[in-house]
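Researcher: Please translate sequence to structure tokens.
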Amino acid sequence: MHLLFGSQTGQAKSIADGIYSVAIEKEISCKVACFDSLQSLCEIDVAFVVMSTTGDGDIPDSCLKFFRKLRKEPNGCLSKLKFGMLALGDTNYTNFCGGGKAVDALLLSKGATHIFDTILADDATGQEDDVERFTTKIWDYVSSHKAENEQNGFVSGVERVKISETRNTEDAILSLFDQSFSYSCGETRPSKNENAFVIPNDLKLPAKAKTSLALKFYHLPSQPQGDNVYFGMASEIKYLKLSKITRLSGDVSSKTSLLIEVEGTFDYQPGDSFSTVLPNDSSIVNLLLNRLKVAHLADVPVERSVLTGSSKSDSSCNFIPRISTLRYIFSNCVDIASMPFKKVFFRLLAGYCFNDDEFKQLLRISSRQGAEEYNQLREKMLTLLDVLNMFPSCDPPVERLLENLPILLPRPYSFASSPLDDDGKFSFVFNVVNIPEDETRLARKGVATGWFEKHMEDVNHEIREIRIPAFLRSNTSFRMPDDPRIPLILIGPGTGVAPFVGFLRHRRQLKKKDSSIVFGSVHLLFGCRTESNDFLFKDELKQFEKDGFLTELLCCFSREENSKFKYVQDTLRADAKKFGGLLFEKNAEVYICGDALNMAKDVNEALISVIEESQGLSNIEARSVMVRLRSEPKRVKEDVWT
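Model: Translation complete:
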């Protein structure tokens, strides 16, 4: 059978790789691949698909080329294909599982048929149960063909094979170091075997995490380290110098909004974004190394390998350099600062708890019966260190943690500049994330936003040169229309205004190059807490309005009593006929940027109200119109985040 995935950040790939490992253990011939590595689907009989969603309900970048090609194929070309799909999404975003739904519809339109109905997994509530349901349906399908499978050796692409061991033994591993320099792990690290507590019979638990990773430490003065591997890069990595960091918010603002200027640029358009991968907070890394009792090994060179007999391939942990140090790995390779931990992770921790009450508590969190406790932990925004501190007797080996921790993901930011600017720089804006201390967690800042704030003095006073690794992420669905005469409705409260500043700067540059160019109207809806402390780009936006690049600047301030409106959605509802006229008489395009959790949903409902009132439609009819406006060609576009 084929396991196919479309992944933007690596999550769909991780799920597909996990299913692949189980398939090998079950002696089922299986191929796992990203869609863009395929030439065609026409010769595949059975496929199970894991598909993520990116941007405004879009198909991941890693699959675009393949599906553009498939759309051109004749209907019926996939008539022999049977497939089952797991679509990954987040109900905090408007187009929930949009990428998976689009692929599902495309495959069906080309003649493929369902093995079972597509499963929609919601990251807002945890995807564990949905992933388990998906894998159960796969094995049910394989099992239902068992008799014919055993008779013929294969059924509809599901083949029985005999697994033979081909990996080298530990003694035969090709090491970059002389084995005589190897540490004696028994002397430096106490043996950490699982506890022998009895598992309660009434809990339905996930399968235990598979063991695959081995670490070998060395007595060497140097610390060789490899390059990390980043998933979903749309361009080569550039190491760009930070030029200036400016605080945009006022001193008494509840938020710290920073404008970052960077020397160097990409081949980008307004509406595009880039990503950077920055290290975890060094103080948290140090505390974690101490908690794991490996601080004395933190800077000792370590070689990673895959254990003999493991069903996982070496590529399953290739985001960790083959030769590195624990400090480098925990700083640059794995995510220790968020709470995306799967239930199987808590099942793993339970095995290394040496207090019976903590053991049972972790087992319950990992069980189906403990869904409420698990979701409560997710909501607390805990770090790995916080979780370990909640269970003092938990003492897991560092290898077992590393093979179950998620990769440290790139952080995306929208350009707030124009590629036509002649200063050889670009800029972007964000709020520093502050997570306060409470009874279950230590205080901390966002990984990337805190890192930038920490280096503000170094950059502005030129104490030392600071560079960041960055690569382009093309979000073509959020670019301005090719026809500059099309009216724009831009909705960007807070730092969501950043890409729209880039839009307006770009139009100013275009006008300088060609004074005859004609632009359609631009209506910008901006909101923040207070005008005096939180109005980002205030002077520049007012100047854009004065110069005619901005037709109307509509502002609302949620913490000011004399503000006519509190939120941007109130502005939309208050002038439904005007905005409805722009949408349906002038064919305006709507751009929404900012918070997905509340703002984007509220704006979506306000736009539906605008459609109802301006077009005289029922709520159901207006929602149907909204779906069309969000479909290709999109006239309502989002760049939102949680």
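Researcher: Any highlights?
Model: Residues 128-144 form the longest helix (17 residues).
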